Every structure is written in C-alpha cells, then in structure tokens.
Amino acid sequence: MASYTFQQMPPGKLLIQLLEKKFTGYLSLRSGRGILRVGFHGGRPVTTESQGAAVTGGSVREGLLQLFVDVAGSFEMEQGQVPPGQGISPLAVIREGVLTHYSKERLIGEAKELLKGPLTFVAGYDAYLPLYQFGEEDLAVVRELAEKPGSVRDLAERTGLALHHVIAVLYILALSRLITLHTTAEPAVAPEDQLSPEARNLLDELKKASLAMQSENVFARFGVAPTVTTEEVERIFKERARTFHPDIMQRKGLGAYVDLASAYFEKLTESYKILHDPRERERLRQAPASKEEEDNVRKVLEAEMSYQKALIHFRRKEYTEAEEHMKTAVKNAPDDGTYLGFWAWITYINPANNKDAIRDSIKRALIEAVELNKREATLHYYLGKVLLDAGQKGSAIQHLKRAVEINPNYIEASRELRMIERNRTRENLITKTGTFLNIFKKK
C-alpha cells in the first residue's frame, strides 16, 4: 500500500477528492503520536480508531482534524467494506482545520494561486455555505466577495480582517471550486527569434529547468544529490526563485511565458517543502517509492509538462504541434477534464483537420470533459461553440450560459450569446418584413 505525504496532497484537497469519488475504505494517518484510522463510506467519514495517542477523545471530527496539524505524518488509503454509520460532512472539518491548525507559512504555500488576481464566485456557491458552518467574520469575507469581485488584499481592506484570515476563508472555498479567478486577456506571444539575447537565454534556462521537473525522483527534480543539506536546499531554492519567479519573467519581457514559469515555480516549491525537511529526505533515501507510485507520479508530471508545451504552441497558432502535446497529456491523465477538453478544442480549430469529419467525435469528447469537470467554464464554452457549428443552437445556448454562470466575466461566452441574440432579432425582422411585402404581391 503506497504511502503519501501532505506535501503531495494537502488534507483539504484529499477530503474533497474522497467525497467527490464517494470513497469507501480506510484512511490511515501515521505520525509520531501513533496511527489514526478513519473509515469512509460513500466519501463521508463514519468511524475512527487509533493506536497510541493518535487522537484525544476519539471522535471522527477530532480524528480528521489531526490531518491539518503541521507535524502530521504520512497517510495511506485502502479500499474496503465500511458500514454506512452516521457520516459527517468533511466541509466543516476542512474549515476548522485550516482556520485553527494551519500556520501562516503553510496556508500561503497551499493558497498561492489565490494571490494571482481578482476573484469571484461561481454560480450556486451559496447552496454550499451552510455546510461549512462559517462564523460571522468568515461570512463577512463571503458577503464582500459576493457583492463585488476583488483581490485578497482588496477583500482584507474592505472587511478590516487580517490578511491571513481572508486567505484562509478563500482557500477553504477554493478547495470546493466555489471561487475562480477573473478571465483576463492572454498576452500575445512574441516570436522567440525577436527576444533580446538576455531574454532568450533566460527562456532556454527555464525550459531546461522545467524539463528536469518531469523526473519522478524529487532529488533529481531539484537537481541535488540525496546527501544534500537543509542549508543547500534553502540556498538553491532562493537562487531559482530570484531567477524564474513569474514576476521576474514578466519584467524581463517574457510575459507570454508566465504560465510556464508559474508551473515550474509551483513544482519547485513543492520539491523545496519536501527536501527542506530532514526527516522527509531521510525517508526518501531509505524508502524509495514503489514502481506503481513512481509510474503514477511520472505520468502526472509528463501530462502537466505536455499541457504547458501545448499552451505555448497554441498561443503561437501552431495547432498541429499543440494537438500532439495534448494527445500525450490526455494519454497520461485520461481522467482530467481540462486536458481532454483542451485537446478536443485544439483538434477542432486546427486548420489541418476537417471540421465536418471530426465534429461528432469532438462533441463526444467535450461532453465527457464537461462531465469530468462540470465547473470549468472554458469547457462549456468549447462545447457551446461546437454545438453551434453542428446546428444545435438550443443546446449551445445552454452551455454558453452555463459558462457565464460559472464565470460572469467570461468575455468570449458573453459575446457569443449577444451575437446569437442579434442574429435571432435580425431573422425575426426579415421574416416580418417578408410577410408584410407579400401583401403587395400580385395575385
């Protein structure tokens, strides 16, 4: 049975994933305090048992809160028969765990995506709020964001709450994908041969560093030997952060490659968190991952790298190359709706392909992608566009409207809906005019 750490899968994401997959079986937490075993039925925790002093009191809620303690150890999952019992909702546990047990450093590390720009709610978010059992201060953040989208700092100023408290509330909501970043226009990609020598060299270094992140070996990913010290890990991380941080890339004239830099920096940070801990380094040296686990990690990394490469080619309108990279991403992560949907869209708009011949298969792929990730506005937009081309206007409108419901600032989907309405008005006018003129035709 494979063992994982909370650097690899934060506890909030883990509980949400178990809930969404309706997991039935056991989650075992191993720490210096003993072994805690929580039984799940249909994704809801129902029983708990412990060996040693793993949990005081023994309730399911208290047991789950141990997952959020900074010193929590590794965990294992095992499918099995667990009686239904009186299950509890993990959402309230996630709220309490993040707000009461997370250090500021851990919170910032896991919630860094929320700091990238203004945020807004997706449609239907309010139906989930009672399940979190938010306090009055937490709800103040919710009300401000519902009234007007804003950045983390903006919301902190509007509510008068501490910045880390606002981040915690938003992170809790983001785990259930109830909030999203505003859609912003993507920068045009300058041809690489037009970059300055300094920018070109920096981009080449970033590509090499990103390629190294595909390794399943965390030491190789970070570019160090297994005997590396904590001080060396800190020094290397600071050097690379100063070189490849997305903000640095922007200032160096490489704004079009910020996505690649962000993906690299995220993996660099994950590797740093693991290697900075002497106990974790020792565990990795003495207990290499199983072949199955290594294969899974490798596939996930390869899928993400293929996706990032496809994005670069897509922005250059090199659709055939982008399509090939997305085929690799889908092959390595077939259950990821984002990868499947992006592959389908690139394939559909690629001038080298016959739209009429592939439309039905692309439509089926996009329907599957939407099922895998129902809350991703872009997937609904892609499906809406293909349905329009297929003459299925009613279904297309439904998906375009859904894209705008999820992300009210989705400019392309809103524009498409306005065009459909204008065309409908024009058609009605032409029909009425034609009927009127028929009155004057000679019998």
Account of the protein in words:
It is built from 21 helices and 6 strands. The N and C termini lie far apart (86 Å). A hairpin with a 2-residue loop joins strand 1 (25-31) and strand 2 (34-41). The chain has helices at 11-20, 60-65, 90-101, 104-110, 129-132, 136-147, 152-159, 163-175, 197-212, 218-222, 230-244, 246-251, 258-275, 278-286, 291-315, 319-332, 337-349, 355-372, 377-389, 393-406, 411-438; strands spanning 25-31, 34-41, 44-52, 74-79, 119-121, 179-181. Helix 17 (337-349) packs antiparallel against helix 18. Strands 3-2-1-4 form a 4-stranded antiparallel beta sheet. Strands 5-6 form a two-stranded antiparallel ribbon. By secondary structure, it is of the alpha+beta class. Among the domains are: 11-89, no CATH class; 102-181; 334-443, Tetratricopeptide repeat domain (Serine Threonine Protein Phosphatase 5, Tetratricopeptide repeat, Alpha Horseshoe).
Computed over alpha carbons, the radius of gyration is 25 Å
Supply the CATH architecture of the domain at 334-443.
Alpha Horseshoe
> Strand count, sense and closure of the main sheet?
4 strands, antiparallel
Global structural class: alpha+beta
CATH fold label of the domain at 334-443: Serine Threonine Protein Phosphatase 5, Tetratricopeptide repeat
Strand order of the largest sheet: 3-2-1-4
**Class of the domain at 334-443, according to the CATH hierarchy?**
Mainly Alpha
Distance between the termini: 86 Å
Shape: globular
Low-confidence stretches: 53-57, 184-189
Helical proportion, percent range? 55-70%
User: Kindly state the mean pLDDT as a whole number?
Assistant: 82
> How many H/I helices?
21
